[in-house]
Amino acid sequence: MLSWFSKKAASEEASTQVVEFRYDRPLLVITLLLIGFGLVMVYSASIVTAETQSGDGGYFFKRQVAYLVPGLGAMFAMANLHNEALKRYAPWLVGGAILMLVVAMLPGVSATAKGAARWIQLGPVRLQPSELVKLSLVTWMCAHLTRMDIDVRRWRDSWLPALLVTGILAALLMKQPDFGSTVICGAMMMLLLWVAGGRHWHTGIIILGGIALVALAIAIEPYRIRRLTAFLSPEADPQGTAYQINQSLNAFGSGSWTGLGLGESRQKLLYLPDCWTDFVFAIIGEELGWVGVFGVMIMFLLFVWRGLTIARRAASPFASLLAFGITAQIGFQAVVNMAVVTALLPTKGLTLPFVSYGGSSLVVSCAAVGILLNISRGKPPPAWLHAPARPSRMRRVADGVAVALRQRV
């Protein structure tokens, strides 16, 4: 079970000091509150659609609860798997993510919705590889940037491998297509390289290149141009491309400060599409008002605060950068989702972490929190984990040779 012990100081007479490690309790409480609140809102937002489509008003709620079980299991497992093991196996994580993206495009296995092939259908279970891609990329980037033989200020050491790996993932994501996840992956790559000490002018060049690629991706797809036009002028096509965002804004307008009351949303009566997934934040605004909206925002701010605190106190450079990367990725996705729902950004298919309906998002987000909990604990890996957590003999020899060569030069 998760340890709730605090550090105990030894008595003055004792010759040694016994320290009991504990997980970051505020982060765990914040996460569980967001998950619990998300379950309530998923049920409230989806009950009408679920009753209409399946005859069971709790259909989506039950599925979300079912996904929560492996999600909590993943959180528990990652909280007790020392983070240094992730550093060693980061390339395998990225390789697995690439493989899943390829499988998601295979006929007979791929599941398609609204013209996008983003899921793998395994019987009643549907997996979305892009959720794993984001966590895998962050883990690999942190492992890559904290290697002994790398100079993050050199282009070929830092940026070139990062661009190659991120480019492969981005190409596969755009093939689905999943523009929102692609943007998040690119943004996380640039942010982590900059935080790790990359040159500012290198970062500036990549940012300019990224903006150009985003503009090109929008220009070559008519539906993205329509979404951009709907974002700039929602009133121009209220029953077409701008319908969803207009209904979302109506939800916030109806909710005012205190909301219509939990379960009293009118937009969920088949007016607002995807109101239990990407646009659940609009239902929160309608039923709980701006009080509920600000409450959710405060919870995510507290989550980011605890994540950054864990990163600052981490025991190793890899753990520190990984905690920062995970916190930034979850916080950034939450900000993008809220901005989309409130018409501050063009529409994208991104969930609100822990709150929106989505099994893959919930499981991977819980696993990410488990990693943060492990880093906050700061305990050395147990005996059975020494081998996977310790660099291999070949890796140690290669690191020693690299150090010796640098000293000679």
Description:
- The chain has 409 residues and is mostly helical.
- The protein has one domain.
- Helices cover 65% and strands 3% of the residues.
- It has 14 helices and three strands.
- Strands 1-2-3 form a three-stranded antiparallel beta sheet, covered by helices on one side.
- Helix 2 packs parallel to helix 12 and helix 3 packs parallel to helix 5.
- The longest helix has 34 residues.
- The N terminus is likely disordered.
Spell out the blueprint of helices and strands.
Layout lengths: L24 H30 L4 H21 L3 H21 L6 E4 L2 E7 L2 E3 L1 H17 L13 H17 L3 H17 L4 H20 L2 H11 L10 H13 L24 H34 L3 H25 L17 H19 L8 H4 L3 H16 L1
Number of helices: 14
Read across the widest sheet, the strand sequence of neighbours is 1-2-3
Radius of gyration: 23 Å
Can you give the mean pLDDT? 82
Q: Distance between the terminal alpha carbons, to the nearest Å?
A: 51 Å
The total domain count is 1
H and E string: HHHEEEHHHHHHHHHHH
Catalogue the unreliable spans: 1-19
Beta-strand residue fraction: under 5%
The helix fraction, in percent, is 55-70%
What key phrases describe this protein's structure?
409 residues, mainly alpha, 3-stranded antiparallel beta sheet, 3 strands, 3% strand, globular, disordered N terminus
Brief synopsis:
The protein has 14 helices and three strands. The chain has one domain (25-408). Helices cover 65% and strands 3% of the residues.
